[in-house]
Amino acid sequence: MARFDPPLDGAAQDETRDLRPKFDDDGLIAAIAQDVETDEVLMLAWMNEEALRKTMETGRATYWSRSRKTIWVKGESSGHIQEVADILVDCDQDAVLLKVRQHGGACHTNRKSCFYRRLEGSGTVLSFTGPDR
Amino acid sequence: MARFDPPLDGAAQDETRDLRPKFDDDGLIAAIAQDVETDEVLMLAWMNEEALRKTMETGRATYWSRSRKTIWVKGESSGHIQEVADILVDCDQDAVLLKVRQHGGACHTNRKSCFYRRLEGSGTVLSFTGPDR
After folding, report:
1. How many CB atoms are located within 10 Å of the residue B97 CB?
2. Burial class (CB in 10 A: 0-12, 13-18, 19+), B32
């Protein structure tokens, strides 16, 4: 597998037209999945070099599981795959934004999005959003 | 400063109505900022316990800078503050989604969003999005 080019310094990294992902000390970048049709933020996950490469090559969102320490094709067992319509990178390229067509729920709880609870007022109480529960 | 309650195990964490942020080994959670009006994803940053607490208390997005190792009130020097309209947490509470009213550009390059480049086709060439550059 070809390696990605290394990150550049400062503003050069912000303005380069080359993909130069900036993996952290654990070899990871953050990956946000957003529904390409509704713009709903679905989940946040992690990618190592292989996961990013596979996502680019297959068009299916593929992540790195920090807890299981393994590559993970999203929806491989549940069928809740993410077809990747677009991949955007942020200024210093330590995060990517995937615009995806989500099949079924993105969340392992079967909800559409993992972000199904919001903070109430100024306290630490959460309320559930959405119609499902 | 009061501590947050500790995370629960498995499904209990997914369904609790208590804010129980799951900080990683570096004491951090990921924070996505999304424009509350346009649903555009603006940036990804990090929060430690103090940053999350300050965000909740002040209604201004406050992050932890991994490079500078310091608390950072977004827009403190640039004026490009983020008024927090809503805070959502994900299933295992290791990420938060801030719905914000963004003043000026969210990105340090002055662009509205940090995600201003997309991957072209299947290669590693990036193209710039948006009208600004």
Report:
1. 25
2. buried
Q: Does residue B2 or residue A32 have the better pLDDT?
A: A32
Task: Compute the distance between CA of residue A36 and CA of residue A103 in angstroms, rounded to an integer.
Answer: 12
Q: How far apart are CA B53 and CA B119, in angstroms?
A: 36
Total CB pairs under 8 A between chain A and B: 120
Non-local CB neighbours of B98 within 8 Å, separated by 6+ positions: B31, B32, B33, B34, B55, B61, B82, B84, B86, B87
Query: DSSP character for A22?
Result: -
Q: How close A9 gets to chain B, by Cα (Å)?
A: 13
> B104 pairs with which residues across the strands?
none
Q: Which of A80, A89, A79 is nearest to A56 (CA)?
A: A89
Place of tokens 């392992």: A108
Q: Is A88 within 8 Å of B117 when comparing Cβ atoms?
A: yes
Q: Which residue ranges in chain B fall short of pLDDT 70?
A: 1, 131-133
Cross-chain residue pair A39–B40, CB shorter than 8 Å: yes
CA separation for the pair A98, A87 (Å, rounded): 5
